[in-house]
Amino acid sequence: MSDAVIDLGELRDGSDPDRLPRPPSSRGRPARTALVALLVLVGLAASTPYPRRVGVTLPATAGADAVVFDDVVFLVEPTGETRQRTLTATRLPDGEPVWRTSLPAEGRYWGVARSGETLLAIGYETGQDGAGTLTIALDPRTGAYRWQQPGRPAVLPDGAILLWSGENETAGALRAVDACCGTVRWQEPVAAGLDLTLRDGARGVDRLVVLRGGGQV
């Protein structure tokens, strides 16, 4: 019968350098998962091309006024006091013409604004009775004429339009009209040389101060 030999290994002093690493704790897993997700997102972002900038050039004379609502740019020609001005609507970003219309009154136009579903063109009317500020309302979708009244416009919180005139030598009026059809809600006559101060709120003009002659406010 042979003797059996059992090798118990070699006894070493100190800690065992060949010890297997401790299993990773669960605390480190979310951090490594987040890091991997971040690296993946960075890789996807790097592979996605940047959006290409699109430009369109529209014909216009110097001093033309343009304003953009949604994806349509409205442009009014400002110069000339002897022939009718035109107002055009062009779709962005491809520059496709939507409509073109002639403004019904001769004069110089310098501004375009919008109140809800009403487009406002503001100009300086010339005629036999002298010159004065004029506001013309159109349909922004078709350019169809709706109404025109003297005065400068400002939008009120309920969507109505405030119009005032009389800043020059002639007497004028202060009134509010419906944006859709120009129906007068209220009107107040004012003397020549109107001095008006407006306060713009979050949804339109919510306060106004009128300085009348004789020291009245």
Any overview of this molecule?
- The protein is globular, with a radius of gyration of 36 Å.
- It is 9% helix and 40% strand.
- The strands form four sheets. A four-stranded antiparallel sheet has the order 1-2-3-4, with no helix packed on it. Strands 5-6-7-8 form a four-stranded antiparallel sheet, with no helix packed on it.
- The longest helix is centred in the N-terminal third of the chain and has 20 residues, at 28-47.
- Residues 5-9 and 15-24 have low confidence and may be disordered.
- It has one helix spanning 28-47; strands at 65-69, 72-76, 86-91, 96-102, 107-115, 118-125, 132-138, 145-150, 152-155, 161-164, 172-177, 184-190, 195-200, 205-211.
- The chain has a domain at 65-215: Beta Barrel (Lipocalin), CATH 2.40.128.
- The chain has 217 residues and is mainly β.
Spans of at least 5 consecutive residues with low confidence? 5-9, 15-24
**Strand content range:** 35-45%
CATH topology of the domain at 65-215, anyone? Answer: Lipocalin
Number of strands: 14
Helicity level, as a percent range?
A: under 10%
Main pleated sheet: 4 strands, antiparallel
**Under the CATH scheme, which class of the domain at 65-215?**
Mainly Beta
Distance between the termini: 129 Å
In CATH, the architecture of the domain at 65-215 is Beta Barrel
H/I helix tally: 1
- The Cα radius of gyration reads 36 Å
Encode the helix/strand succession as letters. HEEEEEEEEEEEEEE
Q: What is the global morphology?
A: globular
Mean pLDDT: 76
The strand order across the widest sheet is: 1-2-3-4
Query: Based on helices, strands and strand pairing, what is the structural class?
Result: mainly beta
